[in-house]
């Protein structure tokens, strides 16, 4: 078998790289469109909409928690700056 391949030259291997681009906004948009289309199809078929999906409450709790923590930090910084200004003017 090696005799038959003895005179053949191997083909040149070419490197083909496909670029990967991750767009989180596009994925969120596509997910929303998918959910809306499913809801429209369910309405046409007479099925009830499944408004609550898995993880909805976890996502809501996560966003509320971060916004509350951010507000608390900003409030503490504001109180600290005001306290420093009051002490600076009183001396």
Average pLDDT works out at: 79
Give me the Rg, rounded.
Answer: 31 Å
* Annotation, overall tally of beta strands: 0
The secondary-structure class comes to mainly alpha
Distance, first to last CA: 99 Å
Q: What is the 3D shape?
A: flat
Low-pLDDT residue intervals, each spanning 5 or more residues: none
Estimate nothing, just give the exact number of structural domains.
Answer: 1
Q: Describe the largest sheet.
A: none
Q: Count up the helices.
A: 2
Indicate the percent of residues in helices: 55-70%
What does this structure look like?
This protein is an all-alpha fold and 91 residues long. The protein has one domain. The chain is 63% helix and 0% strand. The termini are far apart.
List keywords for this structure.
single chain, 91 residues, flat, 63% helix
In short:
The protein has 91 residues and is mostly helical. 63% of the residues lie in helices and 0% in strands.
What layout of secondary structure does this protein have?
Blueprint: H1 24-45, H2 56-90
């Amino acid at each position: 078998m090696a005799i038959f391949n003895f005179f053949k030259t191997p083909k040149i291997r070419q490197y083909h790289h496909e670029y990967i681009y991750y767009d989180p906004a596009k994925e969120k948009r596509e997910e929303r469109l998918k959910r809306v289309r499913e809801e429209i199809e369910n309405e046409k078929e007479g099925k009830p909409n499944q408004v609550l999906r898995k993880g909805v409450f976890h996502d809501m709790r996560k966003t509320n928690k971060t916004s509350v923590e951010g507000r608390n930090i900003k409030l503490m910084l504001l109180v600290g700056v005001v306290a420093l200004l009051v002490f600076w003017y009183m001396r």
